[in-house]
Amino acid sequence: MITVAKTAGFCFGVNRGVEIVYNLVDEGNKVCTLGPIIHNPQVVNDLAERGVRIINSPKEAKPDETLVIRSHGVRPEVYDYIKNVGINFKDATCPFVKKIHNIVKRESSKGKTVLIAGNRDHPEVDGIKGYCEQDAYVFSTLEELKTLLKNHKNFVKSALILVAQTTFNSILWRKCVNFVNKLCTNVKIFDTICNATSVRQKEAVSLANNSDLLIVVGGKCSSNTRKLFDLCSARCKSMLIETVNELHDCVLTPLPLKIGITAGASTPACIIEEVHEIMSKKINESAGSSGEMSFAELFEQSGQQAVYKVGKKVKGVVTAISKNEVQVDIGGKQAGVIPVSEISADSSVKAEDVLKKGDEVDLIVTKVSDQDGIVTLSKKRYDAEKGYDMILEAMDQDKVLNGTITDSVRGGVLAVTCGVKVFIPISQLSDHRIEDTTEFVGKNVDFKIIDVTPSKRRAVASVRKLLNELKQVEVEKLWDEIKEGDVRTGTVKSITNYGVFVDLGGVDGMIHITELSWVKVKHPSDIVSVGDTVEVTVKDLDRENHRISLSYRKAEDDPWRIFTDKYSVGQVLDVKVFAIKQFGAFVGIMPGVDGLIHISQISDKRIDKISDVLSVGDVVKAQITDIDYDAKRVSLSMKTLLENSANEEQQKNLESVENIEGVEINRDAIAQ
Could you tell me the pTM of the whole model? Predict the structure, then answer.
């Protein structure tokens, strides 16, 4: 029995890189690759026959060539040289490798030391080290990690990050993680092993545990292939081969009952198929098979088997459009049919809105029915594959994509972009809490891709990330422009006992309770409510701590300005006593302006207790004797009014006496 691992063969990143090169060649471009595009001699030789050159440095690229950076990635200075010189290039760096670049660059810029689990001589590891702004250390075994930490005892408490080469041994990785977690107190761990690598290694181990012979197919210089072989050989008899030629002289004695086949990420499917065929033939020969072919084999050799295989990309011309399907001519004897469900990822789209009779379309074969002579095709799948590359490019380059939300699903929504459905979690649908996602169906939105799972062709997008980035731009612009004294419009965001927070456009400012009104306020909610649009004045800026103090009070409403415009020293007012202290009585002159009548100015006679003369609530007449605008103080006197009144009474008495005939008046005596 022969079992082929489901995950054997090209991983997503390698397949993407190889396709980029082949597509460039098919388009008539002269191509060179910075190192072998993959660690597989057969593919490399095939590309060489098509004119693809391998160079070791960008300096070797010719002016008329397109340089392809392989999936392993390169150091940032390589990009700098390519761009500065003006070399035409295509970047085939695996998205998972770029993810590691972003991690080590971000974390090392914070002063953290980087530990890399991987092969220090591998180009992927060299590229990762190039993005580290602090010291970076590479280890390939648990023993090397232990030695590293022993030689750098400060690492135990230092700020560290731990990452792994995408093809690192997943079992060894877990052992290293456990060791670091136990020893280091300030380490941040990022599991950067490619998901496809983890799955491939796990499946290979399971296959080896259930096989008598395990054949590992792949380039002998391939890191991930060597790791597969090491994992399998520890569990059963294993062989590492590059081509089927290495199997011809293989003698299966005794005959293995169970044979497993797996392959590295850089092994083409055609080689895996050849290995399977050769091993099947050997088993038949070893078992004394008569050599008779099965009906399926005879049928295939007769030339009657369809030339179309599931997954094959073809071109077709639309010949007819009906309600349930679109008929296309694919240039063979079989009839090509596109079910209406396979036209677009957007189920609301009608066939006639997308296709017209005579249109040439790119398609993928999804089913071949030789009995009926029908080849079932999909435009949706072709668009998805093409669109998926665009999505990966958008994530790599942090581009904004646009899509239409087509479905409300559990936990979020689905949006179609580039012919692909992407998932937007409810938490990423907006920058505020969303309760009902159905209201978004049919809407056109901008977003950014935040995660991809190549093995499942899934992508996760975020509207929130884009909104936050746009807000950040506005925030930086606001801090560049804002200055003290500015009058700005904002929205009341929240209210506390001590003040109000106002959103000025991505930046919050605070209005202290004393700056809400010129008069005393019991609680801020007496003046404003959450959601109110308010016009405020910038009172103070703390740029270092990003704090803004605001005022809601209007200068023209300043009661002291109104008071000084209306009143002056010497004027007599009716004032109301609102507080009595040992040294005097406080009186209200007008809202926002209070005054003091000192104890010495309450009466023209000596008083011991103010309460003997005045009570809270009394309205009395008092004369303004002094105004201190800067200190916001007004002094008043009742005494001056009493003295003036006494003088006026005396003057009246004198005048009445002078009017009596024949009476000699001694003014001095009267005055006394």
Answer: 0.48
